[in-house]
Amino acid sequence: MIEQGKIAPYQFTILVILFTVGSTILIIPSGLAFEAKHDAWISSLIGPAVGLIFVALYHLLGQRYPALTFVEIVMHTLGKWIGGAISLLYVFFFFILGALVLRNLGDFMTTQVLPNTPIQYIHILFVLVVISGVRNGLEVFTRTAEIFLPWVILFFLFLIVLLPYQFKLDNLLPVVGYGIAPVARAALPYIGSPYAELITLLVLYPYVSNNRKAGKAFAIGVLIAGFILFLIVMTTILVLGPKITAVQMFPSYILAKKISVGHFLERVEVIMAGIWFITIYFKLTICYYASTVSLAHVFKLKECRQLYLPLGFSLIVLSIISYPNTTYFFHIVTRIWSFYSLTFGVLLPLIILGLSLMRRQGAGSS
Amino acid sequence: MNRYLLLICLALISVVLSGCWDSNELNDLAVSVGMGLDKKGNKVQVSTQIVNPSEVATKRGGGYSAPVTTFTATERTTLEALRKITSVSPRKVFSSHLRILVIGEALARNGVAEVMDSISRNHELRSDFYIIVPKGTTAKSVLSILNPIEKIPSNKMFSSLEVSEGTWAPAAKVELFEFMADLSDPSKENILTGIRIAGDASAGNKLSNVEQIVPSAILQYSGIAVFKGDRLVDWLNQDESKGYNYIVGNVKNSIGHIRCPDGNGVLTVDVTRTISKIKGILSNGKPKIKINLFIEENVAGVQCQIDLTKPETIREIEDLSNQKLTTMMESAIRKAQRNKADIFGFGQAIENAHPRQWQKLKNDWPDRFSDLDVDINVDTRIRRLGTTSNSAIESWE
């Protein structure tokens, strides 16, 4: 194994929370409100519920091969050549996910905060921090996550607590007025991102010190993150209403703009943006880490330090060329991404697990 | 040793990096507090009211030039015109501190969809300003009136609207998001509060306007503009505006009068609390609206020959108040129905109660709205009589 570090189950929970909240917190209310309108909050509850099923699947897989890394599991069950090819596809999946997350942040910054700054420079600066995080290893960036999570929670509470007097309960009416179909339709992209992307965290699974407790830690993380995302969706709908929410690019930022306590405490939205700066950083770091480590495993490299810089540069380039404009991005998110992430997050793991069960492998057989 | 060298290098790099693309120095910006949009042929005329910092910031002195300057530019689209203002303004216009957006009546009658879209797309504009329509004048002239007490006219318009919405029923503040949400919604049409220039408009843009005790020209909120889609179609007068605000539950505090029971003179009442509920009903597939208004009042002035110490008198006043409020609300509804513009959100009320049937109703909602049955039920409670009991007038007789 390339990675020598170990993380405790509760640290794993923290990584799960930050990964799941990730860039989703910035954009999810509009996607849900677009389809489910008043009932976006119901859709936001379906996400984590399905997410828990995925977690159960990943846990089963991780438990069968406690000593193997993700790539080794894939190679072990599918053979050297097919397994290697699938593993490479996984590396691409983690890598593309990272590029999209990075571009999310860049788009947000150039649209709302720094409109005249070239997006490349925002990406370069952000990726430099990510590389330095990954270079220091899993243990170090996990401890960093531990330090930053309280700030995320603090800012988040701040955001939620300052808004209730702007709540309009009418915005929730009519409840499930148009049937369950739009609610379910809205939930599909939400399941695709971030819950099907949780497969990325399976790469960290062998490094959790207590393998038995890892599943529980995983589930708790998904539940907490699901609750945070539910709160942000609920608050956005209550304050902005479904119509305004649906047309916003970054509804959570607009929500933060609405904070105004007695014309005194206002214009704090950039501080609030700290929430997704931190969560996006960790999601990106985990994606980047997963792709470099997996790549090194596929090619059986002794260490992956030499991969960090070149892959980081590729990440910047990929994030810029991945889509030409915002409309294209929406097309990817609503029409394509869910199927892509569900293929890698659900279909392939199911096949791998099925094969492994048929051959009665695992559970120490390595 | 190497570590320290690295640290020093990093510190030096940060000095260079901080000179970023998006730095905006305060003294390079023209802070715009009011924006006006008018129609000029098929072009848009944008007027921005810019704060004159040296006039506003000084503790003493000042008074040599106006506290604000209004620049205008005309172009095919709003943002082009806004950018063109740089050709007359010495600094870049900065709109994040906008307080008020004035949409000229001619433009409003022609449709505001284009201008509102560019405004909501712009990242620099926040959503915490109010939108108003000048009645019988242009946005440019509204932004060219100087006001006493509050140096910056846009701030005056902003706070005047807040205060008068809180204490005087006929005004309604509308923010960008509400307006945008209703713009696309067939179940609710928009309204905006009107503003007019009282007095001599041409004298209003000189400093001398605020040097007098009674200013020659002053800005006054008056009436509510009714929109249908993105076009202004009609105005509500003062009573209808009050009626509108009672229906939608906008009234926090207001003063009104009712005719005395014997028909001579009037009785002033101070409204202290109102709760309004709009309910959508479907009876045999036919939509109906029920409005329940609960209102608490204090007696504030009496010109009548009545005995306020008797409980029957109070009940009588309550009945009169109910009638008066019902007429006001009905007149507002009639005017809206004449214009087929559902400004009260009756459609929303029906959607909330019967979402599935609404899908069928919504297509010809304007027509259905125009002959909709509205059942108004007012429940007035007189609570207090002010600091005196019976009127002095009564005891003279």
UniProtKB/TrEMBL annotation, chain B:
<keyword id="KW-0564">Palmitate</keyword>
<dbReference type="InterPro" id="IPR046953">
    <property type="entry name" value="Spore_GerAC-like_C"/>
</dbReference>
<keyword id="KW-0309">Germination</keyword>
<dbReference type="Pfam" id="PF05504">
    <property type="entry name" value="Spore_GerAC"/>
</dbReference>
<keyword id="KW-0732">Signal</keyword>
<feature type="signal peptide">
    <location>
        <begin position="1"/>
        <end position="19"/>
    </location>
</feature>
<feature type="domain" description="Spore germination GerAC-like C-terminal">
    <location>
        <begin position="222"/>
        <end position="386"/>
    </location>
</feature>
<comment type="similarity">
    <text>Belongs to the GerABKC lipoprotein family.</text>
</comment>
<keyword id="KW-0449">Lipoprotein</keyword>
<dbReference type="InterPro" id="IPR057336">
    <property type="entry name" value="GerAC_N"/>
</dbReference>
<feature type="domain" description="Spore germination protein N-terminal">
    <location>
        <begin position="22"/>
        <end position="196"/>
    </location>
</feature>
<dbReference type="GO" id="GO:0009847">
    <property type="term" value="P:spore germination"/>
</dbReference>
<keyword id="KW-0472">Membrane</keyword>
<dbReference type="GO" id="GO:0016020">
    <property type="term" value="C:membrane"/>
</dbReference>
<dbReference type="InterPro" id="IPR038501">
    <property type="entry name" value="Spore_GerAC_C_sf"/>
</dbReference>
<dbReference type="InterPro" id="IPR008844">
    <property type="entry name" value="Spore_GerAC-like"/>
</dbReference>
<protein>
    <submittedName>
        <fullName>Ger(X)C family spore germination protein</fullName>
    </submittedName>
</protein>
<dbReference type="Pfam" id="PF25198">
    <property type="entry name" value="Spore_GerAC_N"/>
</dbReference>
